[in-house]
Amino acid sequence: MAAGGLAGLLPAQTQLEYALLDADTPQEKENLVYQYLKKMDSRERDLTVPELGGDLQWLNTAGPISLHKDLCGKVVVLDFFTYCCINCLHLLPDLHALERQYSDKDGLIIVGVHSAKFPNEKVLDNIKSAVLRYNIVHPVVNDADATLWHELEVSCWPTLVILGPRGNMLFSLVGEGHREKLFLFTSITLKFYKERGQIKDNNIGIKLYRDTLPPSPLLFPGKVTVDNSGEKLVIADTGHHRILVTQKNGHILHIIGGPSSGRRDGRFSEAAFNSPQGIAIKNNVIYVADTENHLIRKIDLELEMVTTVAGIGIQGVDKEGGAKGEEQPISSPWDVVFGNSISGTQEGDVLWIAMAGTHQVWALMLEGGKLPKGSDLKKGVCLRFAGSGNEENRNNAYPHKAGFAQPSGLSLASEEPWNCLFVADSESSTVRTISLKDGAVKHLVGGERDPLNLFAFGDVDGAGINAKLQHPLGVTWDKKRKLLYVADSYNHKIKVVDPKMKNCATLAGTGEASDVIGSSFAQSTFNEPGGLCVEENGRLMYVADTNNHQIKVLDLETKILSMALPILNPEACDVPDNLPVQKDKITNLPKLPKSAPVLQLPSLTVAPGQTIQFLLKLTLPPDSKLNEEAPNSWFITAEDNTWLLQGQCLSGEIKDISCQIIIPFQLPRSCLSAEAILAVKACLYYCSKGSSACMMKGVSFNQPLQIASTNQGCLTQVELIHVFLTN
């Protein structure tokens, strides 16, 4: 057993650390580590790590791994982490680089020991999502009860423990920023034990979780925002390392970056991001928190160009700032929102940044101006606005003396009496406010009074400190109702806060991590929602339901949560946006058999620009199956009203009829008639299971439209249900 846990390493390793400070050359450092290993290896009794319990759950492996059997003969790096922790995320690039340099054939294995901070992080499915989201390719064990953590007396996240080939503890590294030591200790340990013939080159049974997943239009979308018109959505498709600009019906207008991570400015097709999160749009300009590149990027939709406006591409440790944006190192920006300086004449002349990596809120001056309790600043300057840089839940009248804990979401309420920034402070499980008059940082809901207690989380509706949240990642202000909505991420809920009364209540979600579209907000479910936004008129809320890989749409007036926003690639559409309908496209659509029934639907009152979601549910006769090789499809026609089809996706494949098919349709902004008929048709090929006969069947749904002059401004759903009968 490990006598005294990591404390047993402390005397010898502390001596080594001091000696390394005095060493001048790499050779001297290597010799010091080599001599240290000789001393540790000759100890009468190894400091050994206890075996991991056989009942623990493993990821990225073919089965459970034994430290003392399967990993005998390997140098093992144990990474004690929890997936919410920004410091743990900062360590991952170092581990990725180490894995690229040394494989299991070389004798090195990294094992992630997930030791949860929050209850939600103990759930295996949630750890699976994190492993995929952060591209972790080494084995991970879910030590949900922190058994090994306690056995070794680990005290903080992240902690690395380096083991020799007998499971003997050799080094520990606490916190982030030890890349040089990690590589030095690991390389010399491999060399030392190879010389002694104790390193084995056998393969470990790695089976990556990511290889078992089907493709998805979105992958862990972190944030979503809507422009002032309510017609254009911007989605941070975080797992695909790209930004999507879509119409409100899901039709893609621009794909910027992706699908692989990278760091490149330039045309949309050339640009590259690395796990982008926060986004803000104004007119035709989008600003992006390019989180894992440690950059703020600018997207110009007119020029179709991406540029860098803040950050140098590597993680910064500066907690003051003040340099010109592109010369100023920054650390893991997680959200951005437009704001106004107190002396500026231009609307939106400041970009506020939730700087999760340094536990602060920063500002990028888009024009010259002045911040509360600050001096005049030039255009382009990027600097700290609030937060000392200490990870705390500390409120203070002086913004630089306040403390945040991984701020991850921002929203602006510029109107009186609020005139503040709302901050989702994830690691303190609170929502805080920063006054834009004097910079004072105040508590709104969640957490507790002790600024050093970052474990005051839960799921409790209530007022002020009596309300409890669990790692909230997003906030958005509803100007119409004067309410704040919170993505209470680890409670899998959307909460609503009345900032006047400090009341916090559940708006949507049951608290279960799943994907259910219920008949009401209260019956619907989410899975770690990371961001949300409300359109200017206050009707629709869009939620980045991160672990469900969806954008969900909530109607705040009817209290109905609609189906997830379908993301339709431009190449899937027969008609490009804003172009007249091409005659040859219509003639190329399939012809239904004469026997196909025509079903008349009740008339629907709609408005110009309104979105209709047709929900198609088809059922085959008993003992029949869809011929998946045949061209099964849906398509839309509008005889005598082809103006309706301008800019629409006119057809799509039907690959699976076991679930509802979503067909989005947005009425043109300019309607040429007060009445029209839209036909939604489906053509299927299916076979009887008992014979080789294959049939072609079809159905047509005729939808009369009454087009009103007033803008309804909401999403309408129409169910299209048909059961095909046996011949």
From TrEMBL:
CDD domains to which the protein is assigned, alphabetical: NHL-2_like (cd14951), TlpA_like_DipZ_like (cd03012)
Mapped NHL repeat ranges: 526-557
Residue stretches making up the Thioredoxin domain: 38-198
Localization in the cell: Cytoplasm, Cytosol
Keywords, in A-Z order: Cytoplasm, Repeat
Cellular component, GO, one term: cytosol
Source organism superkingdom: Eukaryota
Repeat recorded as keyword: yes
Record protein name field: NHL repeat-containing protein 2
Species of provenance: Spizaetus tyrannus (black hawk-eagle)
